Amino acid sequence: MDREQRKVFAFGIILALIVILSVVYFLWGNLINRGYIEITGTAPFVVEVFESQIVECGASPCEIKETIGSKNLILSKEGYKKMIKTVKVSLFGKTRINADFEIIPFLQSAESMPKDEEKIDYELVLDKDTQMTKLINKKDSSKTTIVFFPKSLKTPKIFGSKKSILIMDFGGSTRTAYRVDAILKSKDKIENFDFTEIENGVWSDTGKYFVFTKSDSQNLWLMDGKNKITKLNLLKDGVLFAWGAKDSLFFATSMSFQNATTKGKYGDYYINLLPEKSKTKILFGIYHPDENAYTSIGDFDEIKSLPDKMIPLGNEKAVYFKIKDKIFKLVNK
Hints:
Layout: H1 3-32, E1 35-41, E2 45-49, E3 53-57, E4 62-66, E5 69-76, E6 83-89, E7 94-99, E8 106-109, E9 122-127, E10 132-137, E11 147-149, E12 156-160, E13 164-169, E14 176-181, E15 186-189, E16 198-203, E17 210-214, E18 219-223, E19 229-235, E20 239-243, E21 249-253, E22 255-259, E23 270-277, E24 283-288, E25 293-298, E26 309-312, E27 318-323, E28 326-331
Parallel strand pairs: 1-7
Antiparallel strand pairs: 1-4, 2-3, 2-5, 5-6, 8-28, 9-10, 10-11, 12-13, 13-14, 14-15, 16-17, 17-18, 18-19, 20-21, 21-24, 22-23, 23-25, 24-25, 26-27, 27-28
């Protein structure tokens, strides 16, 4: 093979390599370098892969083909809050995520309020057979014993619910308090609890938490399932609150607030309550006792004063409230 032929042969090899590399590059970039993202959520919704593509998902799950590597997704749905998620796409793999869209809270008029739970009144009476003091439901004609007490309580004060009851005795030389489980029919003495200044209180639906006010404090207070006492940032003046069925304390307040850097399991709307009052807004929010944290539902131009009454739905997806003769439904989930 002469010199010219070798040059032609070498050029041919180089050209073939260029063609092969171009084909490989094309195949890698367009066919091989791919993985999948599978998103499950309530359709329709839109997924924007940052600096790549926008996909309208009309059905769920929604499958998106993408190049491998770390990807930032913006998920949006009309009437719901946007979500940002970061996922890692692997070669030929499938990354699965759930899109749990949070609704943008909105206010609407309502015809009527949900019914209040019937209040249960308890009383302490003398049991003739044992000559001991027993706790009963006032409306129970059979006077079935819930728990016994070893002595007569002098001047008891009772805060009761379906599941839990707080009994305080102010009359003896040693002031005592008891927590009663109305379901299990058992009682525990509460130690190291200064309850003498309690004005009023409400049990959560589960019976785990008790929120109360004190005459010597401007704040609300909370007793948890282990009888630990926590001072809340909510001020008792200018607040209305009601328990949801899942231990969420819904509130409306005239207090000011600022966004918090706190992150938790209840979304991105954590706030810090401030002691000064807002001049224009009524804030609706939720206190989460398991995190000792507050999240905002929002404020609304239509609401200029505190509600007179508030009742959350059992699923906690909405709360009804009344201002004078007007009834509103605040949908928050």
